[in-house]
Amino acid sequence: MRILITGSAGFIGFHVAEKLLKKGTKVYGIDSINNYYDVSLKKSRLSILKKYKNFTFVKIKLENEKKLLKYAIKFKPQIIIHLAAQAGVRNSIKNPDVYFNSNILGTFNILKIANKIKTKHLLIGSSSSVYGANKKFPFQEIDKTDHQVSFYAATKKSTESLAHSFSSLWKLPITMLRFFTVYGPYGRPDMAYFIFTKKILAGKTIKVFNKGKMYRDYTYIDDIVDGILKLLNKVPSLNSKKKYKNDSLSPVAPFRILNIGNTKKIFLLNFINTLKNELKKNLKTKYLPMQKGDVHSTLSDSSLLKKITGYNPKTNYKVGIKKFLKWYLSYYK
Ligand SMILES: NC(=O)c1ccc[n+]([C@@H]2O[C@H](COP(=O)([O-])OP(=O)(O)OC[C@H]3O[C@@H](n4cnc5c(N)ncnc54)[C@H](O)[C@@H]3O)[C@@H](O)[C@H]2O)c1
């Protein structure tokens, strides 16, 4: 089995790649290694992957269609897991262009290439942020997603539409993966839990938005990886005899959207207090109003994923935080 992973120097791409490499799968990684956050963290992730003989890496930007195609034709992956993207809600308000290029143009290029080399299954990272201002919890894949509140979320929703059109026109099998606030070792330094940890350790004040009155479906990285791996062979098909209740399978394309979350609501203040208690430090907080672009709360209904794959997220947030901090303290000494 040959799998191409875009964004393999990124948080989720790295963990998916490592798990597959351990199983002996041939993994081809690509990433631009951009400097949105600490490049040395991306290089550390890559140095772990490069220890595996079955790993090949090329530095490519998604925008470079020619180079991407050359690489894809050379390796002919049966599966593509597309996880390279410009992430981050806040930054997308200030720098929308990079989101447009990486997420919309970049995914468009991946779709064209997957179609040219006739990939058996293309899996694309989307986000819970596409549910935007929705008020019906938990979020289900069949819910309407018409009201994104950040440009980042809008680019993610756009990739879902682009992917559906390709899948419909060319019968390209595609699964969209809507991740819910992913955290864990080798995580993203721009994310709130990472910033909180750094500040609590330094005795600095942390900014808590909307007075902490919001919750997130924090999902530990191992559960995300497990969900993705379980889906690799669950290729959406229009001829499938199996019918699932509330299925998001398109009626006209081998295309399905799936939530991958922990399915528990964790209030922000509980998350922060667990971090503080584990670090045995004092907490200094500054309460601020809701930030532009942020969604109020997220909660995943992952029952469709469970029915299709047996997915069962195992990591309670307190256990996940302990594992994250163990890594953080040893990595940053
Ligand atoms: N981490 C989360 O909580 C979360 C939640 C929802 C959705 N997602 C989505 O999951 C995917 C992976 O996110 P992540 O958390 O691993 O982010 P990440 O930033 O750690 O990884 C993304 C990688 O893509 C690379 N990249 C960015 N633009 C590129 C381009 N134009 N060409 C080539 N490489 C490029 C970056 O260098 C980075 O290494 C993304 O699609 C993201 O939107 C993540």
Structure commentary:
The chain is an alpha/beta fold. The protein has a single domain (2-183, 219-261, 299-313), classed as 3-Layer(aba) Sandwich (Rossmann fold). Helix content is 41%, strand content 17%. The protein is built from 11 helices and 13 strands. The strands form 4 sheets. A 7-stranded parallel β-sheet has the order 3-2-1-4-5-6-11, sandwiched between helices. The protein has a two-stranded parallel ribbon with strand order 7-10. Strands 8-13 form a two-stranded parallel ribbon. α1 links the parallel β1 and β2. The longest helix has 21 residues, at 96-116. It is globular, with a radius of gyration of 19 Å. It starts with a strand and ends with a helix. 45% of the residues are buried. The model has no long low-confidence stretch (mean pLDDT 97). The site of nicotinamide-adenine-dinucleotide has 27 residues, from α1, α5 and β5.
